[in-house]
Design brief:
336 residues, alpha+beta, 6 strands, single chain, six-stranded mixed beta sheet
């Protein structure tokens, strides 16, 4: 566990240096929950304006539960990882129907809600309710790996369990929420990844850091094997008729962008013959690299499939959420 002296130094540093973030200034359970979901895979600077707009429109669980999915997605558009928004929506309705419209304080109950895992349950319990729950995210893992000079890739299961054990032993039970945020703040602003040059001279616990004493800061944490990028080639069809554009709602079972409106892919309309290429769009989803070719096509006749809809060309963009389909739509526009 982290000794008492550096723990006190880190908390004092956090009290004096912490960033003023909207969810910290008014840490209601709902605000903490929304912020933690938004912060998954997304940087703080990106989240702040989204958080403020989202809370202005959906200030509580009741308003979020009443919302239609399409409207919710518009307020999430650009944050990516859209399953997070759908899980928020589902969880808000469970909270309304089964928990009296309130977030539970216990991690075990939080874990049963859609979209909440081990880290988020501990974050909400400690930050919003003051429960003595430890947590580990990427920033905390990096701080511990250096402070204790831990060898091994952070994503290895044995290392992950070791980090959580250290977090539990090091937790400041009197101020669990502040302690968890102090560790995350240190990792986000001072104990930076090696390519960004860690600011050891500004670290309040550098004198007790094993990696610094041993000259290992630049080598820790040890990198694990990187997942190779997966190249995907898609073909989307731009089908127009009488000033309208054909849009397609992707099935919930789709691996990528389930439930999103977009252009139909060629596989969705196997009887439609693709025409000339209007352009190609590049897009990344996790470690997948998508090359999307946008091609002209014509709808000959017959009823539309239930997933398809004709939309006035000038209103098509308002139905799209993912930047992939927005880029595809703009790529395929008639240059006239």
């Amino acid at each position: 566990m982290m000794p008492v002296r550096p723990r006190g130094k880190l908390l004092a540093w956090y009290d004096a240096k912490r960033r003023k973030l909207p969810w910290r200034e008014n840490p209601t359970p709902y605000r903490v929950w929304i912020s933690e979901i938004m912060l998954q895979q997304t940087q703080v600077a990106t989240v702040v304006p989204y958080f403020e707009r989202f809370l202005a429109r959906f200030p509580d669980i009741a308003s979020l539960a009443r919302a239609r999915e399409g409207e919710l997605m518009k307020f999430w558009a650009g944050l990516g990882y859209y399953s997070r928004a759908r899980n928020l929506h589902r969880a808000s309705r469970e909270l309304r129907d089964r928990h009296g419209g309130r977030l539970p304080a216990q991690p075990e109950a939080l874990l049963r809600l859609p979209g909440i895992g081990r880290y988020t349950a501990a974050a909400v319990a400690s930050l919003a309710f003051g429960k003595p729950e430890a947590l580990v995210d990427g920033h905390v893992a990096r701080v511990f790996a250096r402070f204790f000079a831990l060898r091994g890739a952070l994503r290895e299961r044995a290392m992950e369990e070791k980090l959580w054990a250290i977090a539990r032993r090091s937790l400041d039970a009197a101020r669990p929420g502040d302690w968890n945020q102090a560790l995350m703040e240190l990792g986000a602003r001072v104990c930076l990844p090696a390519p960004e040059r860690p600011l050891c001279g500004e670290c309040p616990i550098s004198r007790d850091c094993a990696a610094r004493r041993r000259g290992l800061v630049a080598m820790l944490p040890e990198p694990g094997p990187a997942a190779p990028p997966v190249a995907l080639a898609w073909t989307a069809l731009r089908v127009e008729r009488d000033g309208k554009l054909l849009l397609w709602r992707r099935a919930p079972e789709e691996r990528f962008l389930p439930g999103h409106w977009g252009l139909p892919e060629a596989r969705h309309l196997p009887k439609t013959r693709p025409g000339r290429i209007l352009g190609t769009v590049g897009h990344s989803i996790t470690h997948h690299r998508i090359a999307l070719a946008v091609r002209e096509a014509r709808w000959e006749s017959g009823p539309l499939p239930p997933q398809a809809r004709w939309v006035a060309r000038g209103r098509a963009e308002s139905r799209l959420v993912s930047s992939l389909w927005l880029k595809a739509l703009r790529t395929g526009k008639d240059p006239r």
